[in-house]
Write a structure and sequence with these properties.
about 575 residues, alpha+beta, Penicillin-binding protein 2a (Domain 2), 3 domains, five-stranded antiparallel β-sheet, about 40% helix, about 20% strand
């Protein structure tokens, strides 16, 4: 019977239309049966069924076409692939560092297995990394369970060959770091879902995710430089039994980090198995009182703004007495020193007197411009904030002049030093590879002439001062040593040092050419027979810096050069000053 109009009114228009059409078909069936035409009734029913199937298939086909042509799957935040997929990471020369490789997850369905003990015995042997507790829970469960992931195709085949009912596999991507610990702290690692947790994987997470399927993301590091740096840092740390160590190589013109190493090392492929302390990137995340490498900042400030020259004399004949503090020199020369000898002899008294001469306001201005009062402006989210005294008393100013009373990260030291060595521009360091026209502009913090004079003084220090063990014959290497006693329990421990060397090469050449900075820092190095009982920067860090430079100069195309001619004796300061006045 045909539905009444009142009944149909209760349905939406679409449903009313559909009910009307069904009723008409059913009415046709009834009419054919009443007229004794059974064959017509059969044909109509077959036609109706065919029409329903055709409509269903057309609907499915339309849906499939829409999914293929108009789907938004690739338009979200993870373009080019499923959630977790990431672009490859390479060094600046295209060498692979991190890739997504096909792996498999193992699942167990208790409904498909009648012998769980056999599964337990077989998987315990075949998958030694599978947690026994997880396996027990899966065997007792009433539905399909995830057991373990990250199986290579070969491992998957070995388990599959066991023919265990209820054990199945699903493909999944796994991030693989092809060189293990090499550059591990800089590259970082991801979680199981493919989200970056540290290093470049975290810092460049959006770019790496959106680049999946589009090409690799190149980092600034040079794998050859990184390998040499990490190898020499490890050797120095082991030789001197240091509890930690840092190595950095940067291009001071562009701000690109060519190498970054932290000791102890860790393998990002097995991040969960590493002691948490080993996973700390000391180059970015740890702050130190750096000691006398800070005299580079102090002299640059003095030469730039405090009316001194390399020949200005400073009284180092007696310790400098301040309220509650007496500042001594490591080597007691008891003499008047020109500023250039304050630098090459690493006189704390002379540096403190220069800091006091400049004053708290000027020091605060320059330290802020050198980036020493803030976390280093790098993409690395581990970049640590410094520890700085809020009140710039005379004691604080004098101590900061030779690298005490302030704790900063090695990354911040390298960034600030770059401004002194590249002609005077503060350029943030970057872990991204820059293109030919991408060099950052930076901001001027000292004059070009000051930068040139500082390069000459650092060269002089390697030729005749505390940095002689970093010299590389044929190349104009400059540098400054640092040996900071560690503050522990409210006082300084004389036998616990942070020993460092900040190097630059070449010290000559135009400022628009590439110039490189190397920092080696050892935390609590121990003296050896070869160092004659010394654990200072000149004996521990400087030789390591020299070996790094000797290994990497061929890759950086640095020409051989003796560097600027700087005579020893009274004329040294005049020569250094003249080099600054040339520009």
């Amino acid at each position: 019977m045909r539905p009444t109009d009142l009944t149909l009114y209760r349905f939406p228009p679409t449903w009313r239309w559909l009910i009307e059409r069904i009723w008409r078909v059913e009415h046709a069936f009834e009419r054919a049966k009443a007229e004794g035409r059974a064959e017509d009734d059969t044909r109509l029913r077959i036609f109706f069924v065919l029409a329903l199937f055709a409509a269903g298939f057309l609907t499915l086909a339309a849906g499939a076409v829409k999914s293929v042509l108009f789907s938004d799957v690739d338009r979200g935040g993870i373009a080019g692939g499923p959630p977790g997929e990431r672009a490859d990471l390479t060094d600046r020369n295209g060498q692979l560092l991190a890739v997504d490789l096909p792996h498999y997850g193992v699942y167990y369905d208790p409904k498909e297995n009648w012998n769980p003990e056999e599964v337990r015995r077989a998987l315990s042997v075949a998958l030694p990394d599978l947690s026994p507790e997880r396996l027990d829970r899966a065997l007792r469960a009433d539905k399909r369970q995830y057991l373990i992931g990250g199986l290579t195709p070969q491992e998957k085949n070995r388990v599959d060959d066991l023919g265990l009912p209820g054990v199945s596999f699903e493909p999944e991507s796994k991030r693989v770091y092809l060189l293990g610990p090499t550059a591990g702290h800089l590259i970082g690692f991801v979680d199981r879902g493919g989200a970056g947790l540290s290093g470049a994987e975290l810092a460049l997470d959006d770019a790496i995710r959106s680049g999946a399927g589009k090409g690799p993301v190149p980092l600034s590091i040079d794998l050859r430089v990184q390998t040499a740096l990490q190898d020499e840092l490890r050797k120095a740390a082991v030789m001197h039994q240091a509890i930690g160590a840092v190595g950095l190589v940067t291009n001071v013109r562009t701000g690109e980090i060519l190498g970054m190493a932290s000791y102890p090392e860790f393998d990002p492929n097995a991040a969960g198995a590493s002691p948490p302390a080993n996973m700390v990137n000391h180059a970015a995340a740890t702050v130190y009182e750096p000691g006398s490498v800070f005299k580079v900042f102090t002299l640059a400030m003095g030469l730039d703004a405090c009316d001194v020259t390399p020949n200005t004399m400073f009284d180092a004949r007696t310790p400098l007495a301040l309220s509650g503090q007496v500042i001594h020199d490591y080597d007691k020369d008891n003499s008047m020193l020109p500023l250039w000898e304050v630098f090459t002899h690493s006189s704390n008294i002379g540096a403190a007197r220069l800091g006091l001469r400049c004053g708290a306001d000027r020091m605060s201005h320059y330290w802020r411009n050198f980036g020493l009062f803030d976390a280093a402006p790098s993409e690395l989210q581990e970049s640590a904030h410094p520890i700085v005294n809020k009140r710039m008393s005379d004691n604080v100013v004098a101590s900061m002049a030779f690298g005490h009373a302030i704790s900063v990260s090695p990354l911040a030291i390298a960034t600030g030093m770059g401004a002194i060595l590249n002609g005077g521009n503060y350029v943030p360091l970057t872990i991204r590879k820059l293109g030919p026209g991408d060099a950052p502009q930076g901001r001027r913090v000292i004059a070009e002439s000051t930068s040139r004079t500082m390069l000459a003084l650092m060269r002089l220090n390697v030729l005749s001062g505390t940095g002689t063990k970093a010299d590389v014959p044929g190349y104009s290497v400059g540098g400054k040593t640092g040996s900071a006693e560690k503050a522990m329990g409210g006082h300084y421990e004389r036998k616990k040092l942070v020993s460092s060397f900040a190097a630059v090469f070449p010290t000559d050449g135009a400022f628009d050419a590439d110039r490189y900075f190397v920092l080696i820092m050892l935390d609590e190095p121990q003296p050896t027979k070869e160092t004659y009982g010394f654990a200072t920067g000149g004996w521990t860090a400087a030789p390591a810096a020299g070996r790094v430079i000797e290994r990497i100069v061929p890759y950086l195309n640095v020409r051989r050069s003796p560097g600027p001619v700087i005579p020893f004796g009274p004329k040294a300061g005049e020569a250094a000053a003249a080099l600054g006045e040339e520009r």
